[in-house]
Amino acid sequence: MKKPPMTVELDEFDRKIVAALAADGRMTVTELARQVGLSKTPAQVRLKRLTEAGVIRGFRAIVDPARLGLDHIAFTEVKLADTREKALQEFNAAVRRIPEVEECHMLASNFDYLLKVRTADIRRYRIVLGEKISSLPHVASTSTYVAMETIKD
């Protein structure tokens, strides 16, 4: 089992930097410094420290899945037949290799995992469920809930 990440102490400027970049990760360091009330060099030093500490894990584009034809979302409950550590590790490694699985959460519930699966349509989801998710290591059963509309993402 992996250890929880160490908490990093953040001051007011660090929090402002994180918030500003969460809103717009493409801003220049000069603009970032202006927004948080620092000069460029201290902002750059703080940004580097936050990145090296793992507070800022990276930068990416926010893509509209519907424009890519991927607007079908299903939530899949997964119950495992074996929940010993080795089985959990095998499941975790395998589920990471399924590109349609956008999120995977281990839960304290009457099932073990909740997956957020994004596909083009219900037919494609059925294929992913049947060929990929159901054949993951130690899967005993699944249940699916189809999202009708995303209210907050």
Question: What does this 3D model show about the protein?
Answer:
- There is one protein chain.
- This protein has a four-stranded antiparallel beta sheet.
- 37% of the residues lie in helices and 20% in strands.
- The radius of gyration is 20 Å and the shape is globular.
- The protein contains five helices and four strands; from the N terminus they run αααβαββαβ.
- It has 153 residues and is an alpha+beta fold.
- The relative contact order is 0.14.
The gist of it:
The chain has 153 residues and is α+β, with helices and mostly antiparallel strands.
Envelope shape: globular
Structural class: alpha+beta
Radius of gyration: 20 Å
Helices and strands, in order, run as HHHEHEEHE
- Sheet with the most strands? 4 strands, antiparallel
Q: Give the proportion of residues in helices.
A: 25-40%
Poorly predicted runs are none
Q: Which strand order does the major sheet show? A: 2-3-1-4
Oligomer: single chain
Average pLDDT: 95
Number of strands: 4
Map the helices and strands.
Blueprint: H1 12-23, H2 29-36, H3 40-52, E1 72-80, H4 85-95, E2 101-106, E3 113-119, H5 122-133, E4 139-146
Antiparallel strand pairs: 1-3, 1-4, 2-3
Helix pairs in contact: 1-2, 2-3
Fill in the keyword field for this structure.
alpha+beta, 20% strand, 153 residues, 5 helices, four-stranded antiparallel sheet
